[in-house]
Each structure stands twice: as C-alpha cells, then as structure tokens.
Amino acid sequence: MSRAGRVADAFRAVFGTACAGVWSAPGRVNLIGEHTDYNGGSVLPLALPHRTWAAAAPRADGLLRLHSARFPGELVQLAVAELAPGAVRGWAAYPAGVAWALRRAGYGTGGADVHVETDVPLGAGLSSSAALEVAVALALTGLAGRAFPAGYAARLQLARLTRDAEHAFTGMPCGIMDQAAALCCTTGHVLHLGTRDLALRQVPFDPAAHGLRLLVVDTRVVHALRDGAYAARRAGCEAGARALGVRLLCDLTPSQLDWGLWELAPPLRPLLRHVLTEEERVARVVSRLEAGDPRAVGESLTAGHASLRDDFAVSCAELDLAVSVACRAGALGARMTGGGFGGSAVVLAEETDAAGVAREVGAAFAAAGHRPPRVFAVEPADGARRDR
Ligand code: ADP
Ligand code: MG
To answer: Is the pTM of this model over 0.90?
Structure first.
C-alpha cells in the first residue's frame, strides 16, 4: 500500500470515519542563500524526499480536530471561528494558524478532522514546520472545494499565507523560503527564488548524474537560544536597512557594501556583510549549476558557512565540526543550512568519498562527546501535491 493509503487508514483509526483526501508537502534543505529571505535576497532550496502527509475530512460543526502521529493519542480540539494569535500552544499552533489565516483571507475554511504523519525530522533545520503548514493548507483548501493550485502565483499566495500563519501563531518571524520551497520545488532542481519580488526559476541540480552526493548531516542538537537569536538577527537587519535608508538590505547592491559598512554602527556591519556577500554566492552557485558544473559550487558552500559562523554568528560547535571534518575528509564543500544554532549541515561530495565523509563526521562527533549525527544522501524531490 502507498504511504498516502496508510495515512488514510491511520485517519480512520483515529477518527472512526473515512478521510476525504490526503495531501503532502516536503521538507527542504537550502543549498545556499541563508538568512537572506527576510532581506529581499535570494535562496536556493531543494525539496527533500522526506514529506509530511495530511489526511482530512470536513466537519459541519466548525470544529478543527487535530492529531499527529508524532503525539499519538493527543487529540487537539479547537473552534475555527475562535482561533486567534496566541491562543494555541504546542504543535497545534502550526495547523491552527493555517486555518486562521485561510479563513481571514476568505478561503472559506470550516471545521475539519486532520491527521498528520511525517518523516521530516522535527526541529532539524529541514523545515518540518512549513511541510506541516503547507500540507494542512492544501488539505483545508481542498476540503473547501478549491482545486490544487496549478500555477506558481497561486502557490506563492499560499506560501505568504502560511508564513503569516507561522508569524502570528508561533511568534517565529521566518522568511518566505520554507513555505515557498514546500510549494514550488520540483524533482531534479533547486528553486532559485528572489524573495523581494518572488520571481522564481527552476535550476537543474542532479548530483547523481554528475557522480556526486549531497549529504545532510542532522546534528540532532537544538540550542535553546535559537528562536530568540533568529528574531534578533532579523531585527538587526531591519535596523541596518533603516539606518541606510532602504526598505530591505538587499535593496543595496554588493558594490555598495563598502559604503554601507562605513555608514553602519559597528554591531550591524557583519550582518550587512553576510547578507550582501551571500547574495553574490547564490548568484555564483546558480551560474555554475546552469553551466553544468555542480562540482564548482562546493567552494561557495564552504565560504557561506564561514560567513554564517563569523559574520552572522548563527553557527554552533556541532555545525562547525560537521563542516570542518567533512571538508577535511575530502568533501567539495559544506555549510550549515537553515536558521542555525543546531539543526543540519549540507555537504557536497564525490560519490566515491561520501561514505568516508559520513564516517569521519560520525567519528569526530563521538570523539567530541556529541550525540551521533544522522547522515543521509538526498536528491531534489517534488513539492507539495494531492496524493489521493
Ligand atoms: P523545523 O521547521 O526546522 O523542523 P521548527 O522549530 O520550525 O523546526 O518546527 C518544528 C516544530 O513543528 C515541532 O516542534 C512541532 O511543533 C511542529 N511540527 C512539525 N511537524 C510536525 C508533525 N508532523 N506533527 C506535529 N508537530 C509537528
Ligand atoms: Mg521551521
């Protein structure tokens, strides 16, 4: 039986009735373009083969009942009409926020029973939150009679909506990358998304065809300061933009970097330097991929890590160890991916070196007394879809 079929069966076991459909959305890794998506910059994520499924059925009484296989037996029950920011705690805030945002935007969502399952690791910087939001958004709009959004414009509209839901209901001031990746990524490509105008392009990326492996190293650490530090970096970037008289830091061109550094208060300078140099690295990576030379992107990945570590200051000991050991073990390049302070690193390696790189990283973590990391190879997978 397909995974969606098993999720539909699980729905029946939880709610005692059949679901009306199953929708799914992937987690993502960002190849490069980190902390740029709230500065009007570019990002380059790919969808993971790991997905979140939402099986759902409509309810006539306006109740939203939520169940996750990650928290078996815990059934959250909410009245859709009473949903408000700050009112829902824990994991249910993500899907409840989506229901609230859809209703507010006039999508006509009513009550529903929703069961979710995922194989995206939670809190690993691989965007289980956006996979959850997007799968639930598609389920609720599908139940309300809307066709699966065929074009990018409609998908990006949903991306904005689910991002706003995460802001309002969880307080996480995330950019648009994660939701856009879950909705718009396609097999065999990275998604080149300009976050100022939401212009997007599918850039071919097929590591296996070039004898390469893209590894994800999930460090399995989540540092407590993560969310507060993310918000602080974002606030710093916004203060920098205000001081320089632009709306977004990426309204400055890389050639204006030196001027900007001169104008800014010293604590804000490294933030600007990261954002503008990262913009250049994204452009370089895109041009190398389009030239059919994925090996050449390794160097930009490693340079991007140094910038996140030294200028943006969002790395941590485990991520730095994963990156430095991977590079020493022969990887073409490596960097932390996602917001930072734990989570995952992404490593580009020759196929023949990948097993050795994974072994060396594991050994280094053991020697340092860290929990064993999870290392796995990924290929760009498909974005969100209706499964049945
Ligand atoms: P990331 O998005 O990198 O995985 P976040 O902290 O943004 O990390 O989101 C993780 C949170 O999302 C989890 O702590 C949980 O509250 C929620 N979540 C994601 N997927 C699920 C799921 N399938 N079931 C229940 N909660 C989930
Ligand atoms: Mg998240």
So the answer is: yes
